[in-house]
C-alpha cells in the first residue's frame, strides 16, 4: 500500500485467531495490501512476534482456549522487544469493560466481530501510518539531539525557536540565549551583503540554499562554516519554518592550508620549494621590469654534504640541512626568499639587489655556513659553493637566470669550493666543457680510453723497489691526457666512482696475475680506496671475490685510504678495516697530516703504513715547520710499529734529509715518473732479497 512500503517490501501483519474461518475473513480483507502470517493460539503468536522479522501489526482475537488474547497482550507489552508493536484486539464481546481492559493493557485499538472489511482496512492503514509517523518523529528527534552538525529551527519571521546540543558546542550559545533571536547574531561581519541577497533569493525560489559563511563564537573567535538552509512549507505553500544546519570548516580550512603549504614548501626545512620559487621569481621579475630595478639570484650547493649523509646517515644529513636553512635565513632580509630545491641545493632570491649587494650577502653566507656544526656527537663541517646571476645583465627570464646561476655555482666548485662566482660568458664556456667531459667520461670505460700507469716506491737504505703505485690516466681522443684531478672529482659527482674503482681493482689484479705468471712471485698489489667503495655493503667480501677470480689472496694486496676518509664515521671505518685485516690485507693511511684525525682515532686504525703527504716534503729543507712535522710523524709512526712512506721526493737533498730522519720508503720523480706496465721492468729494478708491491690508485 502506497506510503507504507518499507525497505523489506509490504508491511507484515500477524493474524491471531483459533477459528480458521475468522482467519480467512481477515485474510481476504488484507492480503492485497499486506504480507500476512497466521497463528491459531496465543503461544504460537508469541513465537512469531519474537521472530527474526517481527510483524509490524498484530490483529489479536481475545477469546481463545489456553492463552487468551489478553494474556498474549500482557506478554507483548511486558517484553521490550515487542512492546512497540501495534496490537488491535478483535472480539465478539462488545461490552465496554472488556474494551477498556484491553486498551488499559496497551492495545492500540479494539474491533468487534463481525468486522466490516472497509472498517478493518481503514483501522489497519491508519494505525500503521500513525506508528510510521511516530517512528519518523523519534528518528528526527534522535538526529536532532545527536547530530554532529549544528541544527537551528527558525519560525517564518526567521527567529530562532530551537537549537540542538551541537549548536551550543559549536557556537558557545545555549538555547535559552538564542531563542527569539535573529541568526545574524552569529555573523562575524565578514560576509558580503551580496551573498545574503543571493541566499534569500535562492530560498524564496528553490526552498534551499547552501554556502560558506564566517561566524563568530561567543568567546570572540572567528571560524568558517558550511551552512545549509531548507524551507518547511504548509499546505497552502506558505513558510512554516526555516531549518538550518551547519558544520565548522575550521579543520577543513586548516587541512587545505596545510596541503597548500606543503605544495609550496619543503617538508623538511619549511623553506619555499621549487614551485613557490618559480612563482615568486616570475612576480619579482615583472616588478623589476616595471620599476627598472635589479634582482639577484644565488644558486647554493653544499660541499661534501653527500659524504656526510652517506657516512653518518640520513637523520644526521636532515638535521644538517635544517641548520643550514636557519643560517641562510639569518643572512638575508625578511623580504628575500630562501628556497630549497632538493638535496643540498638552495636558491636565494634578492629583490632589488645588484652585484655589490649580492656579493655582500654571499660573503655572509660563506662565513656563516662554513662554521662547524655540533650534532649527534659529531663536529661536522660543510661549506657553500655559490653561483650568482643578475637581472637584467645575465638573463631576462626566470629559466635563464636559474640556469646561469647554476653554471656559476659549478665554476665555484671548480675553483676550490667554499666561494662565490658571478656568471660570465667564460663560466658558460667552462660549463659546456664540463658537460662534454661528463658525457665523455661515461663512455671512457667502454671505449678503452682509461689506462693504469705505474710509479715505483724505493726503500730508503737499500734503494730496492718495494711498492709500485698505479696511477689512473684518461687518454681522451680529442683533449689528450685529462688530468686525474679533473675527472676523478667529476666521477664522484656523477656516480661513476664505483664502476671506475671496480675497473681499477680488476685491472690491477689482472696485471698482478700477468706478473706472477711471468715469474715475479713476490709482487703484491696495493689499491687506493674511495670513500664510496669503503661504504659499499659487503665490501670486504667483494674484494675477496675479485682476488679469487685471478687466483690471488688477501696477502697479495695492500689497500690505501686517506686520512680524511678515516675520519668520516670513524667507528664504521674501523669496523670495515678490521674485516679487511681478517682477510690478511695490509692497510696504509695516505696523505697523513693533511686532515683532522686525532691520535686517539689513529691508534685504533689497524694500519701497517703511514704515507707522509708531499706538501710537507716539498719545503722540508727550508721550512722549519715542515721539518718538525716530518720528524714528529716518523717518530710517531715508528713508536706505533708503522712504516713511513714519503711522497713527492724530487731532489737528492730531500732524499738525504728524509733518510736522516729514518723515513723507510720514498716515492717521487727523483726515482721514476709514472709509466705504462709494458715499460716497467721489474727484473731490472730487482736487487737483493726485497719484494715488490704494485699499488693501484684512483686519485693522485
From TrEMBL:
Name of the featured protein: Signal transduction protein
Pfam families the record matches: EAL, GGDEF, PAS_9, Response_reg
Gene Ontology terms, MF aspect: cyclic-guanylate-specific phosphodiesterase activity
Single Gene Ontology BP annotation: cellular response to nitric oxide
Sequence positions bearing 4-aspartylphosphate: 61
Gene3D superfamilies noted in UniProt: 3.30.70.270, 3.40.50.2300, EAL domain, PAS domain
UniProt xrefs under InterPro entries: Biofilm_reg_signaling (IPR052155), CheY-like_superfamily (IPR011006), EAL_dom (IPR001633), EAL_sf (IPR035919), GGDEF_dom (IPR000160), Nucleotide_cyclase (IPR029787), PAS (IPR000014), PAS-assoc_C (IPR000700)
Residue span(s) of domain GGDEF: 293-425
Residues of the PAS domain: 136-181
SMART domains referenced in this protein's UniProt entry, alphabetically: EAL (SM00052), GGDEF (SM00267), PAS (SM00091), REC (SM00448)
PROSITE patterns: EAL (PS50883), GGDEF (PS50887), PAC (PS50113), PAS (PS50112), RESPONSE_REGULATORY (PS50110)
Catalysed reaction equations from the record: 3',3'-c-di-GMP + H2O = 5'-phosphoguanylyl(3'->5')guanosine + H(+)
Keyword line: Phosphoprotein
NCBIfam families (alphabetical): GGDEF, sensory_box
Domain EAL: 434-688
Domain Response regulatory: 12-128
Residues in PAC domain copies: 209-261
